[in-house]
Amino acid sequence: MFTRRSLLGTGAAALAGTALHLPVAAAPGDFVTRQGMGLFLGGKPHRFVGANMWYAAWLGADAPWGNRDRLRRELDALVAMGVRNLRIAASAEDSPLKNSVKPAFRTRGSAWNPALVDGLAFALSELGRRDMKAVLYLTNFWEWSGGMMTYLSWTNGGKYLDANDPAHPWPAFPDMAAQFYASAEAVGLYHDYVRAMVERHAGDPTIMAWQLANEPRPGGSAKAAEPLLSAYHGWIQGTARLIKSLSPRHLVSTGSEGLMGSIERADVYRAAHGFPEIDYLTAHIWPLNWGWVDARNIAGTNEASFARVREYIARHIALARELGKPLVVEEFGYPRDGGGYDPESATSFRDLYYKLIYAEVEANPGILAGSNFWAWNGEGRPAHGDHRFRPGDTAWLGDPPHEPQGWYGVFDGDATTRAVIRAHAQALAAMHGN
Predict the structure, then answer these.
(1) 198 and 239 in contact (C-beta within 8 Å)?
(2) Residues 375/358, Cβ–Cβ less than 8 Å
(3) Using CA atoms, how far apart are residues 173 and 141, in angstroms rounded to an integer?
(4) Would the N or C end of the chain have less CB density within 10 A of its end CB?
(5) By the 8 A CB rule, do 180 and 93 touch?
């Protein structure tokens, strides 16, 4: 029988026994801290330009599907643009879901993937060499890395739903996935993983923050979410307390999309981020996914879309002020001109969108601590003409396996977008003298 003790006896040992050594001595000033509504590093305000690079541990693996040389080149390219913060997946559950990434970090039982465990440690060591910081999320609400639906399937007799299944249309998937919070057994398995992973990296100042999950939400519909709100908020505070008990020098955040991931209720979002163990607020902004812009008519819908983006940011700034904590816009993406996925297509509207987000960060120095665009593709290119990810692909892109490859990711050839990012990094550096 699978037990918590069996996992900790073998899984934690596997995590502890990987090849790369971990930092054992770090000065307090090496860690990012929160003071009121600001983040600080070495006694100075810490405001950052960041990217999402969920696949860093996969690239960092010493395995046929890894590529450490490419990882080094990608990090060098990001540093050259002024990017100093990467949001990275520190988990993936081996899953029956059709769009879940493989290989994964862990299985249902006590087996851990040493190549990915080492891959994450290698990636962190390379970030540290470049004076970069990481935000690591510890599971996923969505299917592409296994996530909460997979934990449920391990504990409910194998029942699960695939996202975007025509037989179970929206919001069937998020409504079922949210049942994770009320499953003591599923949460227990997740906490075992959290415990082992956080203990392993507790002394590493390269990590700015641990994140409970990628885009946790209490459900897809208000009807399903309402009875789960107590369990959802209990999971947030309980997990945050666990992380703080294991690694008190690291920050903790939820990974929430914001109001759109809180059944559009300010009280749900406010409660999730009001716990003292949660150090800062997060917001993700997806105009195309939310129907604010039409990919077939970006020019005609762009102005209205941008107005809604500004309003969304303003609402979260107000909530952050109310709670007295910083805010990070840690995911934002926009389609390429014409809605295509090829690196050759133009990015004029995306560039304007990035400028909008960056202008908001620059205009709110006392509360908007930073941002992470979604996502860095770098050298990666879609491996297939249909832009779909297939099992066995190793051309890792910022667009996860369930999405068209090239949809939102920034390629190394996107010169104008990279120039926008670089200009913002220079503006922040000038504002803060670093």
Answers:
(1) no
(2) no
(3) 10
(4) N
(5) no
Q: Are strands 85-89 and 376-378 parallel, antiparallel or unpaired?
A: unpaired
> 251-253 and 327-332: which strand pairing?
unpaired
pLDDT digits (tens, 9 = 90+) for 2-22: 222 223 333 444 454 444 434
- For the record, the structure tokens of 36 come out as 């009121």
Residues 6+ apart with CB under 8 A from 414: 343, 347
The dihedrals phi and psi of 376, each to the nearest 5 degrees, come to -90, 120
Q: What angle do CA 411, 257, 396 make, to 5 degrees?
A: 30
pTM, 2 dp: 0.94
Supply the Cα-derived Rg of the chain in whole angstroms.
20
Q: Rounded to an integer, what distance in angstroms lies between the CA atom of residue 187 and that of residue 212? A: 12
Contact (Cβ atoms closer than 8 angstroms) between residue 414 and residue 381: no
Distance CA(82)–CA(84), nearest Å, equals: 6
Both ends of the chain: CA-CA distance in Å? Answer: 54
Strands 368-373 and 376-378: unpaired
Residues of the chain with pLDDT under 70: 1-25, 28, 433-434
CA 349 vs. chain centroid, Å, equals 24
Write out the two tokens for 52.
Answer: 């999402």
Element (H, E) at 283: strand 281-285
pLDDT tens-digit map of 169-192? 999 999 999 999 999 999 999 999
Separation CA 302–CA 174 (nearest Å): 28
Residues 6 or more apart whose CB falls under 8 angstroms from that of 145 comprise: 54, 89, 91, 92, 93, 95, 100, 101, 104, 139, 214, 400
* Whole-angstrom distance, CA of residue 28 vs CA of residue 434: 20
Ramachandran bin of 52, using left for φ above 0, alpha for ψ from -120 to 50, beta for the remaining angles: beta
CA quadruple 219, 220, 226, 231: dihedral, nearest 10: 0
Q: Which helix (H) or strand (E) holds 135?
A: strand 133-137
> What DSSP designation does 92 have?
-
* Whether the Cβ atoms of residue 325 and residue 337 lie closer than 8 Å to each other: no
Give the C-alpha separation, 352 to 286, whole Å: 14
Torsion (CA) 147, 152, 154, 158 in degrees, nearest 10: -120
Structure tokens at 409: 């990711």
What would the DSSP string read from start to end of 397-426? Answer: -SS-TTS-TTSSPEETT-HHHHHHHHHHHH
User: 3-class SS at 134?
Assistant: strand
Looking at residue 340, its amino acid is G
